[in-house]
Amino acid sequence: MDFPREEVWWNGKLPICTPRLISIPRLIVSRTPLMSWVIHLKLFENSLKAREGTRYMTYLIVVAHPDDEVLGAGATIYKLSQVGEGVNVCIMSGEANARNNRPNTDELKNDARSCMSILGVSRIIEGAFPNIELNTVPHLKLVQFIEKAIIETKAEVVFTHHPSDLNNDHLHTSLSCQSAVRLFQRRNDATPLKELLFMEVPSSTDWALNAAMHRFTPNTFVEVGEEGLYKKIEALSQYRGVMRDFPHPRSIEAIKGLAAYRGGQAGMFYAEAFESAFRREI
Questions:
Q1: Which domains does the chain have, with CATH numbers?
Q2: Which residue of 242, 245, 254, 279 is most buried, as measured by CB atoms within 10 A?
């Protein structure tokens, strides 16, 4: 069975090449053999002089459904785009046909474009795989779709779902992405991967009920500040029917609370948390 592919180009607020003098704090929290927490603080280069001759990074966010990208990494996407990094989003099931309170297809696409514009996303790649039925699609088809997105965007850092998410589409997107990021070992035209990170999606990652699986364990924290947090909420609000009233995990209060909690874990003023599953330093 063939699943059509649709691509939407969308320009963010800043060109990818626009230099901005700003630092991006990045905390990596790891465990030593003695199981004590060691926090390593690493700052990206924060001056134009330091960036002279340095190529900007390219990021790819691979998600199952429209809105997952902003729930899991919206504030980080915004922060990266504001300093000129190239951020692209690949959505496996772009039409999300099984969603409750779903707007019509044109409205959903407009919602996604509005969201991506706020976040500064450079490009959207949408697939038409069946919603809540990714387990019925041959694994190879999912992998090849993501591989093509990696090739076309020249992605160096990839974010995707955590494999213990309750949502079955999240699981299969994550498994397929884990296979796809190895592409650089098989093809010379693939940009070598620098890092693969898992993200948390409220109302799915927090419902990882299977205790036999390794649950989301954040070890990378990106400080997003108040501006990044409110841009995330603004972007998420573009999706009709997604936000809920408190105490739902997709309420404004819960999203702010999670950002405050993750920030507090790492000594930051609001943060998004990720689990670095694979990292290469050359």
A1: 5-279 (3.40.50.10320)
A2: 242
